[in-house]
Amino acid sequence: MADPSPPKTLNFNVGVLGHVDSGKTSLARALSSTASTAAFDKNPQSKERGITLDLGFSAFTVPLPEHLKESCGERQYDSLQFTLVDCPGHASLIRTIIGGAQIIDLMMLVVDVVKGMQTQTAECLLIGQLTCSHMIVILNKTDLLPGDKRQAAIDKMTKRMHKTLENTRFKGCPIIAVAAKPGGPEAPETDEPQGITELIDLLKAQAFFPRRDPSGSLLMAVDHCFSIRGQGTVITGTILQGSLSVNDNVEIPALKVTRKVKSVQMFRKPVPSAMQGDRVGVCVTQFDPKLLERGVVCTPGSLQTLYAAVISVQKIEYYRGALTSRAKFHITVGHETVMARISFFNQVLLANENGDCNPTSPEQNAKSFSFDWEFHHLDEYLTCQAEGGNGEPQQWALLEFERPVTCPPLCLVIGSRLDSDIHGNTCRLAFHGKLLEGFEDKNYTETALPRLKISKDKQKEGAVERVTDDYTVIGRNLFKKETNLQLFVGLKVTLSTGETGSIEGGFGQSGKIKIRIPEGLKEETKQLLSSSSKKKGKGGAKNESSKSEETKPDAQPVTIHLNFKRYIYDPQKKMVQS
């Protein structure tokens, strides 16, 4: 007789984030029944300090809540498994959190009820806003509050948290008070945690049917790797997209190798296949596990390895520093964090009939980047204040990575300054965006960047030295003696008196130029130039020169203006005038 089909479990990933020492691991332990791989800090350094250094995973299963039975449709699940992703609260490990947050359906933000919001609580909240749409706030360590004032203190902190969340996407989210480990880490295990049953009920009520799609290429975020003698190497992680089955071939892009899947387990139970959102252990043919502690596994050939990328960019409002071109930032992309140099640019906007600059049209926004568009180099990111408008103009950035990174197309990018003071009370997350275009060629500066039309405006100013005839003047101070004037021949210039002309070539050896004025010089310009050259001349009685100064009290030299732009990545360094 055939086995009845095994019970089907829906996996729901809950991220446990918060400031260091807010009690996240104790909370996960109180909630959990099954501890998986890294769960509860296998790291000796972490055991000593009681702090999570890596993404810990553990899980507990409950019968499928009624409201989910209706939304499951065809797929019949009978239980709901909460996989708890315990993200480190250590400031220096923020890159691990960013890695973990990309696989989270719901976030539990753990706050020490005595201390309230702290620097890293705020950073976790920001990461949550970029990567997750549902949150529960947990006020932990209520056992530290004196019994008679406990409820009043909880109410006060609840009110404060609601106010903090008012302008975020988590406005009005549920807030619950618990004591995950009464008496602190040293207390005996006999002290029952408080508020955990209520929290499990709240989690069940908040759980939803996450968007899971088995189609498309496989992408799995790996968090641990170890070998089992005689069997192969086990990779544990969460499937971010697609699905995987026994006997599939998978690629480990970081090692440039392909391996065959021998078996798949979900929380120690063997399964034939797994799909997006599932937390799995995958045994593949042997390789050295030390080479892959973190990273990704994918369908062979589906990921790109990039030396540089164009991203859309948006500054994080709490970041206090300036975002300047040529600066270096820590870039978290896919599951890697790498240093990169950044250059900002925006689109050259065309004014419409009303004189308003119309930013990108809806069709352009849908595409959100094209090599056909004209861009303008920015020395720094433009904020609303700088623009004097409301809403920041759309901006992009070129990231040049210090080492190649492997990531899926269109993935989230977060820029931070992880080298700023861990203990300083400042937000270290600087900007976020989407990866729009990646450069896989090592020689991208020669092969790809010339396609990127980013220009810089240049202005030069000089003066008319003298008139040769009605159609020609000689200019000085526009160029240095060593400038190659041939590059500038034919460019248009404007005189301060209104005439336009073009550069015919050099004059003499000192950087002077000959300018042709096709419409001819105006009478008043000729007078102005002759009077200023007379003033320079030694002849003429003193009273004459003083008279001419009376009639022309502000005889200014006639200036020459040359405006052009240069495309930064143009190998020919051509000058262009509109």
From TrEMBL:
Q: Name one GO cellular component term.
A: cytoplasm
Record protein name field? Selenocysteine-specific elongation factor
> What InterPro entries does the annotation carry?
eEFSec_C (IPR049394), eEFSec_III (IPR049393), EF-Tu_GTPase (IPR050055), EFTu-like_2 (IPR004161), P-loop_NTPase (IPR027417), T_Tr_GTP-bd_dom (IPR000795), Transl_B-barrel_sf (IPR009000)
Q: Which organism is it from?
A: Cyprinus carpio carpio
**Keyword list, A-Z:** Cytoplasm, GTP-binding, Hydrolase, Methylation, Nucleotide-binding, Nucleus, Phosphoprotein, Protein biosynthesis
Q: What positions does the domain Tr-type G occupy?
A: 9-211
Ranges of Basic and acidic residues compositional bias? 544-553
Provide the residue span(s) of the region labelled Disordered: 526-558
Biological processes, Gene Ontology terms: selenocysteine incorporation
Molecular function GO terms recorded: GTP binding; GTPase activity; translation elongation factor activity
Domain of life the protein comes from: Eukaryota
Reported cofactor(s): Mn(2+); Mg(2+)
Show the SUPFAM superfamilies listed in the entry: P-loop containing nucleoside triphosphate hydrolases, Translation proteins
Q: Which Pfam families match?
A: eEFSec_4th, euk_SelB_III, GTP_EFTU, GTP_EFTU_D2
Entry-linked PROSITE patterns:
G_TR_2
The catalysed reaction is: GTP + H2O = GDP + phosphate + H(+)
* Free-text function comment from the UniProt entry: Translation factor required for the incorporation of the rare amino acid selenocysteine encoded by UGA codons. Replaces the eRF1-eRF3-GTP ternary complex for the insertion of selenocysteine directed by the UGA codon. Insertion of selenocysteine at UGA codons is mediated by SECISBP2 and EEFSEC: SECISBP2 (1) specifically binds the SECIS sequence once the 80S ribosome encounters an in-frame UGA codon and (2) contacts the RPS27A/eS31 of the 40S ribosome before ribosome stalling.
